[in-house]
Backbone:
């Protein structure tokens, strides 16, 4: 019996196989990262808040400057409120926030910051005037800060302790200024 | 007659100059189509996956009003889009900008398509290979199997011839 000679079948070159597997793994990694980020929610109490800089609206200042660098507020309780002029629940709490701010205005240990989320300038300034908001406020340029906090909507308010760690997150409007006091006061105790 | 002609000429020229000046002072306000042309290239981050031109929320209505305001001020479509990117980030664009890492969105699908075509090509050529080889075995008379069969047939024919002679 003689053997019939069949040429060995040529497979896919190794570099193509490696490329395909690397590409598939990278794609899976990206999907996993996106899903994890989507399910992660906002920053959580105990998390250290990364540094960011706000350029305040015209007419607003903090410590004589039109810019606020978050890292320079270390040692203070920082209340960061995300709002928008098109947001009706934000209107419900606007007066309460301003009242609370006026209560703490002379206490150098407390800072309030308002961050205007995906808003347009004219209605935003109209909102600030309408509710007579005096604490420093700025637009969220490039949506950078809202992405940093991974906010899910407005209003959301973040309370940062003097060590720069997130202490409490309020999702939705405050019912009263007393509610805001009840969150800030324990953070001021030595 | 000459005097009358001069007066008519002066009045005509004055009227033409006045009308063009008035027209320049009162440009056409941007139409809804103009606003929507820009708006459909943008997405509001609040209402995900809804183009700005059809988004019904208050936030999007404000954005469209801002586009109208900018168009009325003489801004081009590109200037308005750039303004929105600076204010709200590149994610508001319906098409990622052709710069930096955003090129990956354009290049990766093309690379994957070319790779897919190449893999298909290789798969088809490797499927055709064994068929052509087996056909070659049958067609070649010099192959050992063919020679062996031919020898057996000759042998059998000679055996049959011998048997016929004896009978």
Residues:
């Amino acid at each position: 019996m003689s053997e019939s000679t069949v040429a060995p079948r040529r497979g896919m070159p190794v570099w193509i196989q490696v490329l395909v597997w690397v590409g598939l793994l990278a794609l899976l990694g990206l999907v996993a990262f996106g899903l994890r980020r989507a399910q992660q929610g906002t920053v959580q109490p105990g998390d250290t808040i990364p540094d960011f800089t706000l350029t305040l609206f015209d007419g607003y200042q903090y410590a004589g400057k039109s810019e606020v660098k978050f890292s320079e507020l270390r040692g203070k309780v920082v209340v960061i409120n995300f709002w928008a002029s098109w947001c009706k629940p934000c209107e419900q709490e606007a007066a309460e926030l301003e009242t609370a701010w006026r209560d703490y205005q002379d206490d150098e240990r407390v800072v309030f910051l308002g961050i205007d989320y995906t808003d347009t300038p004219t209605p935003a300034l109209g909102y600030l005037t309408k509710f007579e908001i005096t604490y420093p406020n700025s637009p969220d340029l490039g949506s950078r800060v809202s992405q940093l906090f991974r906010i899910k909507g407005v209003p959301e308010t973040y309370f940062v302790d003097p060590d720069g760690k997130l202490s409490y997150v309020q999702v939705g409007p405050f019912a009263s200024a007393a509610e805001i006091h009840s969150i800030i006061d324990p953070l001021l105790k030595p | 007659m000459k005097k009358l002609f001069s007066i008519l000429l002066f009045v005509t020229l004055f009227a033409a100059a006045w009308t063009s000046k008035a027209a320049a002072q009162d440009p056409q306000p941007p139409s809804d189509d103009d606003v929507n042309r820009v708006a459909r290239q943008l997405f509001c981050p609040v209402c995900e996956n809804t183009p700005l031109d059809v988004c019904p929320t208050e936030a999007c209505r404000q954005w469209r009003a801002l586009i109208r305001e900018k168009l009325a001020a003489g801004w081009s479509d590109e200037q308005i889009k750039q303004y929105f990117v600076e204010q709200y980030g590149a994610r508001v664009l319906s098409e990622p900008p052709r710069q930096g890492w955003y090129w990956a969105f354009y290049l990766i699908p093309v690379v994957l398509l070319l790779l897919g075509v190449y893999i298909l090509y290789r798969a088809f050529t490797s499927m055709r290979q064994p068929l052509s080889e087996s056909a070659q075995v049958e067609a070649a008379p010099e192959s050992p199997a063919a020679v062996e069969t031919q020898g057996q047939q000759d042998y059998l024919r000679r055996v049959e011839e011998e048997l016929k002679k004896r009978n």
Observations:
- Chain B touches chain A through 33 residues (CB under 8 Å).
- The helical segments of chain B are 2-25, 32-39, 58-72, 77-88, 103-139, 144-166.
- Residues 103-166 of chain B form one domain.
